[in-house]
């Protein structure tokens, strides 16, 4: 049943709504996805910094080589990096603590990049301000606690299933196969 907004009791609830312009946003992984996210955030006037395996000389954003420093410098962390043995749980208790009570974590990478149990605990305890999650550590299972939190936005990880996205993916796959068999660099090396 749909309940009109005017019938809901929103008084006293902290909503996960804030002005995006001027916010400090740290991007973990400035590859293809992270770069596209950063370009969109520029349009909102965000102050962008990043963590990546290497500093990119052509990128004007502030570079951090340490994730805890990146977290302590920003209001929002966006996780876009690849999942490897080095990045598994890259966002852990220490990172969340550095991000702080008003900090928001957005994960569009892989679920296991975040220590999900610790994130749920930090959200419950008010140690971080919120989360936007498109991926989960043990998909398709989502921690039940997240469904009840006003400070969390959940997505079904289906953005890649649009006809346009599938077409783009097929073009990349074909391009990578052609490059591989021609002994040229891949379009999207990981």
UniProtKB/TrEMBL annotation:
Keyword presence, Oxidoreductase: yes
Gene Ontology CC: cytosol
Gene3D superfamilies named among the record's database cross-references: NAD(P)-binding Rossmann-like Domain
NADP is among the record's keywords: yes
Pfam name, any one: 2-Hacid_dh_C
InterPro entries per UniProt: D-isomer_2-hydroxyacid_DH, D-isomer_DH_NAD-bd, NAD(P)-bd_dom_sf
Annotated D-isomer specific 2-hydroxyacid dehydrogenase NAD-binding domain residues: 13-159
The organism's place on the tree of life at top rank: Eukaryota
One example GO MF annotation: hydroxypyruvate reductase [NAD(P)H] activity
Keyword annotations: NAD, NADP, Oxidoreductase
UniProt name for this protein: D-isomer specific 2-hydroxyacid dehydrogenase NAD-binding domain-containing protein
Organism: Asparagus officinalis
């Amino acid at each position: 049943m749909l309940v009109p907004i005017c019938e809901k009791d929103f008084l006293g609830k902290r909503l996960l709504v804030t002005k995006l312009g001027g916010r400090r946003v740290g991007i973990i992984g400035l590859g293809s996805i992270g770069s596209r996210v950063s370009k969109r955030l520029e349009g909102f006037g965000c102050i962008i910094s990043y963590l990546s395996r290497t500093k990119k000389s052509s990128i004007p954003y502030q570079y951090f080589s340490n994730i805890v420093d990146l977290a302590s410098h920003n209001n929002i962390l966006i996780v876009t990096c690849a999942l490897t043995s080095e990045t598994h749980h890259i966002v852990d208790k220490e990172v969340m603590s550095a991000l702080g009570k008003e900090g928001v974590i957005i994960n569009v990478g892989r679920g296991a990049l975040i220590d999900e149990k610790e994130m749920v605990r930090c959200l419950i305890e008010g140690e971080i301000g919120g989360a936007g999650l498109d991926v989960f550590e043990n998909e398709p299972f989502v921690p039940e606690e997240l469904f009840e939190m006003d400070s969390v936005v959940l997505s079904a990880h289906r953005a890649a299933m649009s006809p346009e996205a599938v077409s783009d993916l097929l073009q990349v796959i074909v391009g990578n196969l052609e490059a591989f068999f021609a002994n040229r660099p891949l379009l999207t090396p990981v």
